[in-house]
Amino acid sequence: MNLTIDVANKENENIVSLSGEIDAYTAPKLKETLLPLTKGENTVVTVDLAEVNYMDSTGLGVFISALKSTKETNSELKLINPNDRVMRLFEITGLTEIINIQDESVRGGM
Description:
Layout: E1 3-10, E2 13-22, H1 27-37, E3 44-55, H2 57-72, E4 76-80, H3 84-92, E5 100-102
Parallel strand pairs: 2-3, 3-4, 4-5
Antiparallel strand pairs: 1-2
């Protein structure tokens, strides 16, 4: 599986929509796209994880690097809509304590 990365800019926010898998093969491409977006002063970088069906520790490393970069530029990193599997990875590593992760999707119940 591959990773598709779409970036949209609106005012002081960069919205990064991801689709696919974040692993050792795709993480460098994500880092190459994501880190420059975190260099702007006072910007918000929102990463939509709704279509990410798999992520390993290399993906976590990319988000930690992005978080450090936003702290240096007084910006904000926000992750939205992770599926349960991806969210569990953030929870068991304790990253939910330091990264802003929100579920902004509207999921209907059955």
